[in-house]
UniProtKB/TrEMBL annotation:
GDNF/GAS1 domain boundaries: 129-207, 217-313
Subcellular location: Cell membrane
GO biological process, one term: nervous system development
Record's protein name: GFRAL protein
Signal peptide: 1-20
Primary localization class, coarse: membrane
GO molecular function, one term: signaling receptor activity
GO-annotated cellular components: external side of plasma membrane; receptor complex
Organism: Steatornis caripensis
Keyword vocabulary terms for this entry: Cell membrane, Glycoprotein, Membrane, Receptor, Signal
Family membership: Belongs to the GDNFR family.
The organism's place on the tree of life at top rank: Eukaryota
Amino acid sequence: PYSVFTVLFVFFTSISTAQTTDCLHLREQCIHAANGCESVWNVVEDVCNISVLGNRCKAEDAIGCNRIIQILADEYPEFKICVCTTDDFCSITALLGCSIDKDNISTETKLQWSLSALSKQAYTANRTCLDINKECVEDEVCNKQLSLYLKACSVNRKCNMEECQAAIRFFYQNMPFEVAQMMTFCDCTQTDESCHRAKELLHGKPCAVTAVPPPSCLNVIHMCEENEFCRKKYTTFLSKCWRHVTEKCYDDEACLETLIKGDMPCSANADCKAAYVNSWGTMLRMECTCQNLSPAEHSLCKLFHHMLHSKSCFS
């Protein structure tokens, strides 16, 4: 007769095996989907950089790998069954179908932001993008994340906007908020071309933000609202930065059209800055236009452009 322990062991092993099988099936569906999932998956593969020997995984950066898997699950909730919190390797095992060789983890896994010199700096406004770019390149932890992001967004190959945006989301969400804030709000003097090139690198230009022809700001908002993941980011951004607007009109476009920019105070507090940083790597940061719209749509479009791209919150 089987002991209770044996029965429980077989039961939980079968659950684990079934979960892994489900995750592998989801992975295949994702790779062949036409909903942007493949683009996020490509970033998962770049970040996780898994090599498999037999059925053992060798992950160079288990911590970063778990974070990008969490981002995947946030955007595609069907992957929630593949995310677990028992240890640093559980989600990787479930999603990639191989067990982690914990004795063979590269020392790079231990390079966390807590060891980064850049992360120990207090946030200071008005930093130039060139200075911050140099500091990131010289910082071992930051440079590793930057290189992954630049690989996905490289102008030397055909741009995949969705993949580049997914890489930016991981880049900004995988660093301390102080560092993300410095990168987001860095700026340049008008004549400093080197600084402007650094700014474009840090902010995903041109691949993540420039579509040809540029969409109208109305289309950007409507596309975002149709995407559950983007809609959550947009809702948070509105509630944290433009509370007065949302309290007055919520999402009533006819009401919004009656507002003028002078009647739109931005909260400009820490929660607003966090919501703004958190919107990087979504379509909300795409360049948009209000040209060639009917007079009826033009004022609403200008309002959305002001909310998405005005620096009035942070100047």
